[in-house]
Amino acid sequence: MDLLAGQGQSTREYRNRSGGKPMPIDETVIRINDQQFWLYAAADPQSNELLHIRLFATTTTTLTEIFLRELRQKHDVETAVFLVDGAQHLQTALQRAGLRFQMSRHGNRNAVERIFRELKRRTSSFSNCFSHVEPETAENWLLSFARWHNATN
Asked: Residue ranges of the alpha helices (H) in the chain?
């Protein structure tokens, strides 16, 4: 599910800012009914904007590669340094794509963690779970959240 299709900055606008700059990417679990889904996100640590988010029913290196391919189609990130945690599938997908990365648990990588914390804070009224909804309904809510988040930053 491409939650930010048609959203965000043009490639040229982002290219002007990305040259070798850090770009945190991560994933977090979102519960829909009693199933786990993984929300992947890439953020700009300077503006705190979500550059790309994607919801998957599972997490694998192949799905991470799909996320990265979509991110590359939307933004020129070839010179960015991706900040990742210890998740091996993130590191493997970045390495296969020929993109630079470094492991980081603090600093600029916290941009994506702050966004995830805010998302989970806002879904706490749902008990951190979208109950009695279809994945498409949760996707629509996540899209609205992303638009709101980017508009307020």
From this structure: 11-18, 61-74, 88-97, 110-123, 135-152
Q: Please tell me the chain's helix, strand, coil percentages from 3-state DSSP, rounded to the nearest 5.
A: 45, 25, 30
Q: What is the pLDDT along the chain (153 residues), one digit of tens a residue?
A: 444 443 443 333 334 344 578 888 888 888 877 788 888 988 888 888 888 888 899 999 999 999 999 999 999 899 999 988 888 999 999 999 999 998 876 665 566 677 777 776 666 555 455 666 677 777 777 777 777 777 776
Contact yes or no for 64/89 (Cβ under 8 A): yes
Cβ neighbors of 41 (< 8 A, separation 6 or more) are 25, 26, 27, 28, 50, 52, 53, 112, 115, 116
Phi, psi of 4 (to 5 degrees): -120, 25
Please name which of 41, 72, 44, 37 lies closest in space to residue 54, comparing C-alpha atoms: 41
pTM above 0.90, yes or no: no
Q: Could you tell me the sign of the dihedral formed by the alpha carbons of 85, 86, 91, 92, in that order?
A: negative
Residue 90 in 3-state DSSP?
helix
Give the number of other Cβ atoms within 10 Å of residue 114's Cβ. 13
What are the residues whose beta carbons fall under 8 Å from the beta carbon of 13, sequence distance 6 or more? none
